[in-house]
Amino acid sequence: MQLRRLITRLRQWVLNKRFPSEASLMDGIRANIKRGTEFYDALVIADGLVMGPWMRRSDSMVDDVLYSGDLQLFLHDSLRYAMIVEDSGKFMNRQLDYLMSRLPTHMLRWLLREPRIQGIPVNSERFECSHNNIHHLHHITLFEDYLNTSISNLNCIAEFGGGYGNMARLVRMMVPDVTYLIIDLPIFLLIQYAYLETVLGTGICNFIVRQDQSLKEGKINLMVSQSTYSQDYVFDMFISTLALSESTRMAQQAVFEAGFFGADYLLVSHQTRSERWKHAESFVEPINQQYDICFHGKLPYFDKDESYLIARKDENTYLRERSH
């Protein structure tokens, strides 16, 4: 029994070398919220880009994130509702089964284990992670399977709607030198900055606060949603899990006109069009016009109103763009 306890403590010591303590991480997030506020103050979003539900969520978080002396960031209702998947149970287990059929256990343990941050639940004790992280790795693995490619071969990735930054963190683990762009609302960019600077290290993020400002290679770039996007931005992959679906027609049109930032590959998800999300399926036809869709539909074990769309640029579009 003593030997087993010693081995357990040794294992925990080794694992803790990878991530600081929960208290230390929360201190880092508080410090980075303050540090990022100077960039946040320079971010301006145009009228007409944000749907009402998202504007209300954004407004509800501003005071708590910027001015609360007792920051309970990941316990905030707006953040938990919109950014943290924690269904666990059968759905999570089916996703884990899929991942375990594709990746060796030691790789899964490395990719799935998360920093312990107050408010982010631990739904899998085996892998020491949230369902949210399993969900995101499932997205990436599904993408790789349907396109028969590896995300590690991609150099430049754009994500429209970045949650609290977990997808970016996960991709960064898989592609350490990736140039990444997150497009979001100002308050969520600040949250992403605080989270990523804390868990990945100071200097990993670069705020884009001017239209003439370039992306920094090898960094996670943070940019507010725009009514038009620079044609200089060309990406290997465009990701949007529900955010584009939950955007206004104006915000979607800006992405369409920029050709999904020239990405060769798409990984997006959307709801069914409804009174709440009036433009939820509006981007399917523009994708059809430019891309070969490899998968579009609901997952058989996923009972939520969410369809996945995985696509690669069709050959004619690819050749036409390369000829210019």
How is this fold's topology laid out?
Blueprint: H1 2-16, H2 22-40, H3 52-67, H4 77-83, H5 89-102, H6 105-112, H7 131-147, E1 156-160, H8 166-174, E2 179-184, H9 186-200, E3 205-208, E4 220-224, E5 237-241, H10 249-257, E6 265-270, H11 284-290, E7 291-297, E8 307-313, H12 315-323
Helix pairs in contact: 2-9, 3-9, 5-7
Describe it.
The protein is of the alpha/beta class and 324 residues long. The protein has a single domain, classed as Vaccinia Virus protein VP39 (Rossmann fold), CATH 3.40.50.150. The chain contains twelve helices and eight strands. The protein has an eight-stranded mixed β-sheet with strand order 3-4-2-1-5-6-8-7. The radius of gyration is 20 Å and the shape is globular. It starts with a helix and ends with a helix. About 2% of the residues have low confidence.
Essential attributes:
324 residues; single chain; 12 helices; globular; alpha/beta; Rossmann fold; 8-stranded mixed β-sheet
The structural class is alpha/beta
Q: What does the radius of gyration come to? A: 20 Å
Oligomer: single chain
Count of folded domains? 1
Biggest β-sheet description: 8 strands, mixed
Poorly predicted residue ranges: 11-17
CATH topology: Rossmann fold
Please give the CATH class. Answer: Alpha Beta
Brief description of this entry?
By secondary structure, the chain is of the alpha/beta class. The chain is built from 12 helices and 8 strands. It has helices at 2-16, 22-40, 52-67, 77-83, 89-102, 105-112, 131-147, 166-174, 186-200, 249-257, 284-290, 315-323; strands at residues 156-160, 179-184, 205-208, 220-224, 237-241, 265-270, 291-297, 307-313.
